[in-house]
Amino acid sequence: MRAPNAAPLLAVDNLSVDFGEGSPKALSGVSFELRRDEVLGIVGETGAGKSVLARSLLDLLPEGGRIVEGDIRLDGASVLGLSETEQGKLRGARIALIGTNAKALLDPVATVGAQIARVLRAHRACGRREAWAAAVDLLAQVGIVNPERRAKAYPHELSGGMAQRVVIAMAMVANPDIVLADDATLGLDATIQVQVLDLLVKRCRELGAGVVLITHDLGIIAHYCDRVAIMKGGRIFELGEVGRFLEGPRDDYSRTLLDAARVRPTPMAGQGEGGGVTDEAHAKPLLDVRRLEKFFPIAGSTEVVRAIDDVSFSVGRGETLALVGESGSGKTTVGQCLVRLLECDGGGITFDGVDITDMPAKEFRPLRRRLQMVFQEPYVALNPRWPVRALIAEPLRLDPGLDAKGREHRVRQLLDLVHLPLSLAEAYPHELTAGEQKRIGIARALATGPDFVVFDEPTTALDIRVRAQIIDLVRDLQAEIGMSALFITHDLNSVRSLAHNVAVMRHGKIVEYGETEAIFAHPTQDYTRMLLSAELPIEQGLLQRDRAEARRLAGTA
Amino acid sequence: MTVAVRLAGFWGTVPRPLKIVVSRLFMLVPQLFGVMMVTFLLVRLLPGDPALLLLGNMATPDTIAAFRERLGLDLPIWDQFLRYVWNALHGDLGTSIFTSQPVVSDLLERAPATLELITYAMALTILIGVTLAIVSVVRPGGAVDIGSRIYGLAAGAIPDFWIGLLLIYFFFYMLGWAAAPFGRIDTFVTPPPAVTGFYTLDSLIAGNPQAFFSSVGRLVLPVLTLAIVNAGALMKMTKTVFADVYRSDFIRHARASGLPERTIRRIALRNCLPPIITLVGFMVGFLLGAAVLVETIFSWGGLGQYAVQAVVNSDYPALQGFVLVAATFILVVYTVVDILYELADPRIRV
Amino acid sequence: MRATFTRYLSRHPGAVIGLVLLGLQVIAILFAPWLTSYSPVEADPLASLEPPSLAHWFGTDVSGMDIYARVIYATRINLLISLTAVAVAFVIGVPVGLLIGFYRGGLSSLVMRVFDFIQSFPIFVLGMALVSVMGQEIWNVSIVLAVLFIPMFARVIRAEVLSLRERPFVAAARCSGATDFSIMFRHILPNALTPAIVQISISVGLAILLTAGLSFVGAGVRMPTPEWGLMVSSGAQQMILGVWWVSLFPGLAIVIAVLSFALIGDMAKDLSDPTTRDRR
């Protein structure tokens, strides 16, 4: 389709980076080429060296980092050994970087217009007013409505998606040849992620720039990239056309990654212990939520935010319900109301036939044994001063029948249950990996053998393989213990693998509710359709990519 | 209700800076009230008859009776407090036992000396503290970084009165470079007519170079004493703040966007401005306390020395007046600091 | 634990210096009578203002008292005043800060207002006024300093508690059945203590400096009590005349004392936090 240019735009040749003599190499022998008008995806897990690679291309390695071997050539000319001033002329002008968490990338005390103008004036001689006009123009180009007003806004007044657009505008200021996007959409809602990536790729195609898309999401690779490089431990393991890669990776590690990213079949309702439950028990749900309401007051106003607005659902024994929605839809608030971390303002919650809505905290405490929660961010949900042993033992105090010895025994059982070695019992949370922390969180929730567990975003911000392991772990537990669960997530992929039923939430209301298969196959609501279309499953990647490409091309025409 | 709604609506249209200033000034009122309560209770802590203590041992039964009447000492404590507030608001803080002058006029006479000392000391403190902090963050591991670390540790441990004495010993006694540590201006030089109360400024206004150089010379050692000790603390705190900003994501992003280092440093400094403003506000409080000690050493004749005299002579009206003035001054400084902070940080909601 | 400690010391020379300096003070406190044959309060008008010599290592002051003996004995007075003040402030301030941070309500904000008022006074000025009003006794200095420091500890702890109580691990603990008491004392307090420990070392240093400063201006303990600030003050007049030893040595003692607590505070901060304990 696109004619390959003779000299590659960017050539990285046998690049090695380390942090001081004798330290392990952060990059070893990395080689790849980037052509004009090409999107190269670089995928890998935490610690694979993706960000180090991006920053070494800009000669902005973290403190102590140095290039020990290899070369980086831009249009055939080496950029290594350039002076700081010459590098400065390269950065932002020829190579632009778009990083993660756009809100943190913007100067909090300057207006976004001023920030774009600042970058513009660093690369082009122009007056203040001219630069401001150009900044407003750029904001319009990245799809920001009412750019004149938005240019005067401070970063804290923007949403995450809008901030990311501003960062893209900053990157596009000097019409760069190469755009490095380092996990640029991490933490954004799926629908926003698609919009931002669409915009980014479209703008780069228009400019004919080469794009390096660094991500840990194979879905993004499948949908946006021409070629893909798989990285691990500072090396590129496989490099090739995306289509061929998706059909069958050559390398073992790449295959593991791809397998891990695939959807597992929907679990059967009432597996394991739950299999023997009679219809009658099914008819009486374990958890029943009726017309739940929760309002938050807005500071300095008499109005309220309706975080939960008339929400009803029920979960039977051995069943899993997924509550999906974008950030701010109120799904986490629902979870917090269920375990009484928040008091609801209306409606009722019935657990196993007992109304727990207004139960005094003292009376509710024994019930916590049966009603547990796994918290979203694994690290911050663990007390940093406590060793793993104490963390897992804490909920066991709810069981008056257990003495110190019994708790000790149970801690070992639980570590085993979540597939963690006993040697971790004395470790502190900061010494664990994200996956291990998540498992500790799960072990804590399962410690008392609960009937019902709320999982708050169990797969967010995890690496591909760890995410798959957690999903498999939860599936096993569902099958073995037959517990009921409420799954709060925006990761639709994991919903397919874990939930029997789905409730789609938006603005505090449930807009669609039904069986997982049915909803994924035939969504009835526009909002659900939009959520589903923003999902980037690798299975349909190639097909959708061509369609999206056509859409983007149509958009430019 | 409608009035409240209309007021709320009007408040919404007020520009942000004005909103900040007005709401801060409004908060000053209860704070001042609290300060007066503390100074009032201070003297009530004394064992014995307040009238006797506040009048000193020269009191006759007649003066005591008149005094009790004026302060309302037979009334309930709440009424006494209200009288104290009433008198204070009308510029009556009692009469100094030691100088036999109204405390207010004593304080007014001495305030410029202290203010001049603190102002220059603050300026030098900021200059040294902020510069060292920035250089040591921008060039980590450099000579300035290591030197400033040792300095920071030492400055926190050195008593200001002691370093003042050492400076006098070296620069006055040994080397003879510095002016004598006796007051704000040489005895044979006539002080310039008071306009601002600052000898340095007034002598310039009066076009009197002799008075100017004399007063500057006298300022050197006390200002240096205050700055050496306090710049260390300001440096340490500024360093923490500046290092955080300098290593933050948005500075890294600015660098990746190709902004020149000079611009980047300016951006980082601008971001540190709100916390630095707060730190400087606290430093003024420290300096006022430290001035008490330093004024004593240099016979400065300011508020600090007045306070020490009051303590030594058990001059309670003077002491009470000084504490009230000092606390009010600090409150005003904090209010200004809060206002500047909110003006400098657009994230603060008003 | 001991291995961790030795490893820490080998990497932090500052901590070693701090411990050595603290050791010197402990020796001075415990063995003062054996370290000098002079009395710290006995005047000898015939030996006024003698420069340092073999007989008087640090020289003598105006009234002929041996400065070395006074510096050594003053360690007891100065550290007694400072450590008592900080201990009292810690014991009262920490629980108060914990309670007003954890339970937000009218009483909590009232307590905070009171602290605001106390802290809106320049600390040295208020200290001077309070001691002068209460009477210039050793214990009064201690009490006044404690009163001035209580708001500092309470504030530091409260600020920590306010942010800690919103952290997910507190919610997680609640889900695991932790009671208010357990959340406050087993979850929040250990995490809030690091800044309080830093505050201890800052406060002890500040207390030593304030005690000395108060005596220096004549608002603290009175002669002939051996106290560092008082000793510096007794030499202040002579400094202009070139008599340096009267003020120099007690001042150095103050520097050593404050420095040792600052260095040990840094160490305690690192060691009290498992996330920094083993870091290089």
Automatic annotation (TrEMBL), chain A:
Protein name, entry field: Peptide/nickel transport system ATP-binding protein
Main location: membrane
Species annotation: Ancylobacter rudongensis
SMART domains to which the protein is assigned, alphabetical: AAA
PANTHER family: DIPEPTIDE TRANSPORT ATP-BINDING PROTEIN DPPD, OLIGOPEPTIDE TRANSPORT ATP-BINDING PROTEIN APPD
Entry's Gene Ontology molecular function annotations: ATP binding; ATP hydrolysis activity
GO CC annotations, alphabetized: plasma membrane
UniProt entry keywords in alphabetical sequence: ATP-binding, Cell membrane, Membrane, Nucleotide-binding, Transport
Homology family: Belongs to the ABC transporter superfamily.
InterPro entries: AAA+_ATPase, ABC_Ni/Peptide_Import, ABC_transporter-like_ATP-bd, ABC_transporter-like_CS, P-loop_NTPase
ABC transporter domain location: 10-258, 287-532
PROSITE patterns: ABC_TRANSPORTER_1, ABC_TRANSPORTER_2
Compartmental location: Cell inner membrane
CDD domains: ABC_NikE_OppD_transporters
Membrane topology per record: Peripheral membrane protein
A Pfam family it matches: ABC_tran
TrEMBL record, chain B:
Principal localisation: membrane
Protein's cellular compartments: Cell membrane
UniProt superkingdom: Bacteria
Topological type in the membrane: Multi-pass membrane protein
Transmembrane stretches, start-end: 25-46, 117-138, 150-172, 211-229, 272-298, 318-341
CDD domains linked to this entry: TM_PBP2 (cd06261)
Domain ABC transmembrane type-1 span(s) in chain numbering: 111-341
GO molecular function terms listed in the Swiss-Prot or TrEMBL record: dipeptide transmembrane transporter activity
UniProt entry tagged with the keyword 4Fe-4S: no
Keywords assigned: Cell membrane, Membrane, Transmembrane, Transmembrane helix, Transport
Stored SUPFAM superfamilies: MetI-like (SSF161098)
GO cellular component: plasma membrane
Matches recorded under PROSITE patterns: ABC_TM1 (PS50928)
Family: Belongs to the binding-protein-dependent transport system permease family.
PANTHER family, per the entry: DIPEPTIDE TRANSPORT SYSTEM PERMEASE PROTEIN DPPB-RELATED
Record-given protein name: Peptide/nickel transport system permease protein
Lineage per the UniProt record: Bacteria, Pseudomonadati, Pseudomonadota, Alphaproteobacteria, Hyphomicrobiales
From TrEMBL, chain C:
Record membrane topology: Multi-pass membrane protein
Cross-referenced InterPro entries: BP-dependent_transpt_permease, MetI-like, MetI-like_sf, OppC_N
Primary residence: membrane
Any one GO BP annotation for this protein: protein transport
Positions of transmembrane segments: 12-35, 79-102, 114-132, 138-157, 196-219, 239-264
Gene3D superfamilies: MetI-like
GO cellular component: plasma membrane
Keywords associated with the record: Cell membrane, Membrane, Peptide transport, Protein transport, Transmembrane, Transmembrane helix, Transport
Keyword Glycosyltransferase found: no
Pfam name, any one: BPD_transp_1
Subcellular location: Cell membrane
All residue ranges annotated as the ABC transmembrane type-1 domain in the record: 75-265
Keyword Nucleotide-binding listed: no
Family (UniProt): Belongs to the binding-protein-dependent transport system permease family.
PANTHER family: D,D-DIPEPTIDE TRANSPORT SYSTEM PERMEASE PROTEIN DDPC-RELATED, OLIGOPEPTIDE TRANSPORT SYSTEM PERMEASE PROTEIN APPC
Name under which the protein is recorded: Peptide/nickel transport system permease protein
Organism for this UniProt entry: Ancylobacter rudongensis
